[in-house]
Amino acid sequence: MFDHAGVGTRQLAMPLEWYRTPRSFEERSAAYLDVALDLYVEAARAALDEAGLAAEAVDTIVTISSTGIATPSLEARAMARLPFRNDVRRVPVFGLGCAGGATGMGLAAELARARPGSIVLFVTVELCSLALRTHEADKADLISTALFGDGAAACVLRAGEDGFARIVGNAEKTWNDTLDIMGWRTEASGLAVVLNRAIPAFAEREMRQALTEMLASQGLALSDIDRFICHPGGAKVLDALEKALELDSGTLAEERNVLREHGNMSAPTVLFVLDRYRRMGLPPLSLLSALGPGFTASSLVLQGNG
């Protein structure tokens, strides 16, 4: 499993020794609140700095996280470290899993579009490793141990012509009777992963039609897309997506690089991929997509401004 995961290095929330001992839900939650907040602040500050904005300029904060429970949510806790205004709008979202990067950015774009001139900060943090079970581990636990890592990402959105890209469309598709493909199962010790081995086959079979339908709703076709930017759910998932989209093997190169260097970090991962492609320069039209619990495909159409 480790040899075929496509992961070379990754980052974990806690020291390696921490994971060798069975942990209670309380211990996992405490680790989540501590580390997730640190990563949240770091990612948010970096995004604002690159955009040349102060925290006081933010009008709305969208937070995506599904690997821990925080009430008050992470953006409220971050206000003690970043000087957000006390009238900032908070939109915390739980349960999107790996699709959260695409869905969250789409939600943030809609909120920015609804209030022209406002600034929306989108932050996603996932600490997948905290779900590791060291007792009664099943195959899904072993696969997730080989595949998943921890991370955070953020970006700034606002209506207008500036920025490295414009989000010109977004869509989702959820398949009926697919709740058992991916998600969490609640146990006394915390959240346990649900991960179906059929995901690569599902992606190869369903994603072309799903993306075709989502693009058609926006008056576009797959042939209009210059670059596909995909969530690297795993090495086999990337192989399946290339087959589904009729791409040459190895086309999703930056996806594989992110997977190799960071593992699958759930929601933040597709933003890591997007960041690499934006530094290379985006073509006229890109399609960003991710699969997550539901089972749901989420997509964004990006118009490059380079």
Description:
There is one protein chain. This protein has 306 residues and is an alpha/beta fold. Helix content is 35%, strand content 23%. It has 8 helices and 10 strands. It has helices at 25-51, 74-78, 100-114, 139-147, 199-216, 235-244, 253-262, 269-280, and strands spanning 60-64, 89-93, 120-127, 150-157, 165-174, 182-187, 190-195, 227-230, 285-292, 296-304. A 4-stranded mixed β-sheet has the order 2-1-3-4, sandwiched between helices. α5 (199-216) packs across α6 and α7 packs across α8 (269-280). It is globular.
Summed over residues and divided by their number, the pLDDT gives a mean of 93
Largest sheet: 4 strands, mixed
Which series of helices and strands comes N to C? HEHEHEHEEEEHEHHHEE
Distance between the termini: 40 Å
Number of strands: 10
How much β-strand is present in the residues?
15-25%
Query: Spatial order of the strands in the main sheet?
Result: 2-1-3-4
Radius of gyration: 18 Å
Envelope shape? globular
Structural class: alpha/beta
Low-confidence stretches: none
Task: List the total number of helices.
Answer: 8
Percent of residues in helices comes to: 25-40%
